[in-house]
Structures are given as structure tokens and as C-alpha cells.
Amino acid sequence: MIPLHFASLLVCIIFIVPPLLHQERLLPFHVKYSFDWSVSPVYEIMFISHTISLAILVLSVMGVDMLFISVVMSTVMQYRLLQKCLLKYNTSDM
After folding, report:
1. Is 12 in contact with 54 (CB distance < 8 Å)?
2. Where in the sequence is the signal peptide annotated (predicted)?
């Protein structure tokens, strides 16, 4: 599960850091707006909104992945318990 957390952190870094390194103003997501978003207060607000939406997106994807992982782990444990019960079936330990 730790590699999944590092992968999600890497996705956030890949999208957020490159716009900060360029001389021109870029947003984390390449979008087109009908207004000039490169002026000073609007750019910062748009950058923060893109960053927050990226964090929500990554957390949502990770949540679904963790849900599937927990369902699979629970299923595996149930099969292991069933295996132990079947091995003890018709023995003196039963």
C-alpha cells in the first residue's frame, strides 16, 4: 500500500511542480478559459483551485483502489478460514 501512496504523491508532483518552474504562467491542467487568467490575482486563485481539485481527484482514485484492495484481502481471509475448516472436517479436532 505504501507504493500506492508514493505513486499518488508522484502524480501530484508531476502536475504541480512544472508550472512553477516555467517563466511564463502555466496552470497544472491545460485548459482554455474565456477570460484572461494570467493576471496576478486570478492566476493564483486558478492555480490553487487546480491544486485542490487535483488533490481531491487523487484521493478519490486512491479511495476506490483501497476499497478494492480491502475487498480482495477480506475475500482471501475468508477463503483461508474456509480452507482451515475443510481441513479439520471429519477429524478428531472438529
Report:
1. yes
2. none
Which residues are CB-neighbours of 94 under 8 A, at least 6 positions away? 88
Res. 16 pLDDT band, cuts 50 70 90: confident
Q: Write the CB contacts of 88 (distance below 8 Å, at least 6 apart in sequence).
A: 94
Q: What is the pTM of this model?
A: 0.71
Torsion of CA 27, 32, 37, 38, to 10 degrees: 60
Would you say 27 and 18 are in contact if contact means Cβ atoms under 8 Å apart? no
Record the cell numbers describing residue 33, joined without a space: 478559459
For cell 508531476, the residue is 14
Other Cβ atoms less than 10 A from the Cβ of 26: the count is 15
